[in-house]
Amino acid sequence: MILAGCARTGEIDATGGISAVRSACPTVGVAAGTGDITLFDPPTSREQSAIDVTAVITNVRSTCNDTGDQIATTVTFDVLGRRTRTDAPREVTLPYYIAIVRGGSNVTAKRVGQVALRFEAGQPRASAQAQAVSYVSRAAATLPEEVRRQLTRRRKAGDEDAAVDPLTQPEVRQAVLAATFEALVGFQLTDEQLRYNATR
Length: 200
What we know:
There is one protein chain. By secondary structure, the protein is mainly β. It has helices spanning 145-152, 170-178, 191-199; strands at residues 27-30, 36-40, 51-65, 70-83, 90-102, 106-119, 125-137, 181-187. It folds into two domains: 27-138 and 181-199, Immunoglobulin-like; 143-178, no CATH class. The chain is 13% helix and 42% strand. The strands form two sheets. The protein has a four-stranded mixed β-sheet, with no helix packed on it. A four-stranded antiparallel β-sheet has the order 2-3-4-7, with no helix packed on it. Strand 5 (90-102) and strand 6 form a beta hairpin. The longest helix is centred in the last third of the chain and has 9 residues, at 170-178.
């Protein structure tokens, strides 16, 4: 049972129900298969010995401002890079994206940015921080009142539907999905880079 109020997530309230607080802010994470990138030299090779630069996205965090009609989420993350040749200083620019996903699969918006890794002479590693902002309509992220009532209605032992999870009802489940958003970041990969990540 989902209950609104001051209880913290997972607490058992006075009625014996378990509270779950639903936020309008999107869940933030790294999109599957795009959290790392590998550059080769020569670019057409896929041999281990041809790996030039690798980088990963890590330490993803966010702040969310949900006070207005548009919910603004600022996502910050670190990019950690490693190179094979370390003789000279070098700058490597990598493309990344932030995508807003609705209901688990529908991409509603996407923005692409760039982050630069600056390797010092003799250094195999470099790091940089990147930031992206996403916007979601508050109206789209808000559950309809009728669905909210079904989810938060108190049920007592002995009630006919006491043991029935409202989310088993298709219309309730669909409404919750439609109001659920994710802000996902990743490297903007080519089709070949995606295949490499999926098959290595």
